[in-house]
Amino acid sequence: MNIKIFLFSLMSVAVYIFANCEITPVSNCFASEAKQKYTIGFSQATITEPWRLLFNKELRIEAEKYPEIDLIVRDGLDDEKKQIADVEEFISRKVDLILISPKVADALTPVVNKAMDRKIPVIVLDRDLANKNYTQFIGGDNQLIGRTAGEYAVEHLGGKGKAKGNIVEIWGGMAATPAQDRHSGFMDPISQEAGIKIINTPKDGDWKQDLAYDIMAEALDKFDKIDLVYAHNDPMAYGAYLAAKDMGREKEIIFLGIDGIPAEGVKWVYEKQLTATFLYMTPGAEGIRQAIKLLKGQSIPPNVILPTMVIDSTNAEEILKNNGLF
Ligand code: FRU
Questions:
Q1: CB-based contacts of 138, cutoff 8 Å, min separation 6
Q2: Largest CB tally within 10 Å, which of 91, 179, 206, 321?
Q3: What's the pLDDT tens digit per position in 111-156?
Q4: Contacts of residue 110, Cβ cutoff 8 Å, sequence gap at least 6
Q5: pLDDT exceeding 70 applies to what percent of the chain?
Q6: Ligand 1 mean position to 172 CA, how many Å?
Q7: How much distance in Å is there from the Cα of 207 to the middle of ligand 1?
Q8: Which residues form the pocket of ligand 1, taking CB atoms under 6 Å from any ligand atom?
Q9: What is the pTM of this model?
Q10: For residue 177, which atom of ligand 1 is closest to its CA?
Q11: Rounded distance, CA 325 to CA 319, Å?
Q12: How much is the pLDDT for 247?
């Protein structure tokens, strides 16, 4: 090869590499994954609840800040088979990264393992899987949330060592880790109190208001004295409240939920339908922030835990005002 042509080719390659590097670290410029555009596949479990809609909205708003992201969102339609197919689609499209909020742990674990085997990083959001073979988990601390709700219940049923009362617990999806953790966290303080009893047999409320209504209607029928309802999310706490209201018994019961989204749980607390709710932030925005860090070559921690807080009559109004809902 003529030396001039050789030098020209060498320069062209250098210019091409430089143009594609932007200001990423040098090691990353030469890595095969250093790109100008990244495709992120987001597999959402369902969009049947307002919390999920807010989750998707926060995720999309954050993603729009990064023109280098092409985002594909799939709705699992509250059906684990559909959600597995969505992740399979991402794997065959060879996306750069998968975000997933799995409906249930066991059924979704193998397809996430498969993505990891194919070297596609996976960030798990909100609900966990059956093993830790993924890149990162982002979500609230459901044990802590359950424990905080349990302490709140003890305090409102007479205080530590003296608390008395009958509790109806309304479970979210029993195969989902937040429901399991919200139960076990709650039981920490509750099991210390000899005067407190969980009176109903555990039944899967699948996070749904109408199922919770039925569970509560059955409990109201069976038990003359119910002092407190602990539901694993706000829609179910509200469903239980409606069932009690229809029987004229809502005034004698304390209703506790979880999520605390302004237009729902916080509003219900402000209107005194629920006594309290415990914030469970959506991981939508943080999911995108962590994904972009990873795709740009930064290291990310294995867990990002989102904060919680108690929302009751002391702060509901202020939260509504801060969100333009008052
Ligand atoms: C929405 C939801 C929330 C709940 C979360 C738990 O699908 O049920 O209400 O906090 O999922 O994963």
A1: 123, 124, 125, 126, 283, 286, 287, 290, 303, 304, 306
A2: 179
A3: 999 999 999 999 999 999 999 999 999 999 999 999 999 999 999 9
A4: none
A5: 90
A6: 8
A7: 6
A8: 46, 49, 51-52, 126-127, 172, 176, 178, 207, 233, 258-259, 280
A9: 0.88
A10: 12
A11: 8
A12: 98
| Atom 8 of ligand 1: nearest residue by CA position | 207
Q: Pocket of ligand 1, candidates 233, 264, 266, 268: which has the most ligand atoms within 8 Å of its Cβ, to mutate?
A: 233
Sheet containing 97-100, strands listed edge to edge, beginning at the edge strand earlier in sequence: 69-75, 38-44, 97-100, 122-125, 136-140, 303-306
Q: Are 296 and 28 in contact (CB under 8 A)?
A: yes
pLDDT digit string (tens) for 115-126? 999 999 999 999
The encoded tokens of residue 40 equal 């992120």
pLDDT above 50 (res 10): no
Q: Distance from the CA of 202 to the center of ligand 1, in angstroms? A: 18
What mean pLDDT is reported for the chain? 91
Q: Which two tokens stand for residue 296?
A: 């740009």
| pLDDT at position 113 | 98
| 181 in Cβ contact with 105 (< 8 Å) | no
pLDDT for 19: 32
Q: Domain segments of the chain: what residues?
A: 38-139+282-305, 142-281+313-322
pLDDT value for 34: 61
- 238 Cα: distance to centroid of ligand 1 (angstroms): 14
**What gap in Å lies between CA 31 and CA 299, rounded to an integer?**
15
Assess if CATH 3.40.50.2300 describes domain 38-139+282-305: yes
Task: Confirm whether 38-139+282-305 and 142-281+313-322 share one CATH topology.
Answer: yes
Centre of ligand 1 from the C-alpha of residue 51, in Å: 7
Atom of ligand 1 nearest to the CA of 139: 12
Return the number of other C-beta atoms located less than 10 Å from residue 83's C-beta: 26
Looking at residues 221-225, what average pLDDT do you find? 98
Q: Measured from the CA of 48, which atom of ligand 1 is nearest? A: 7
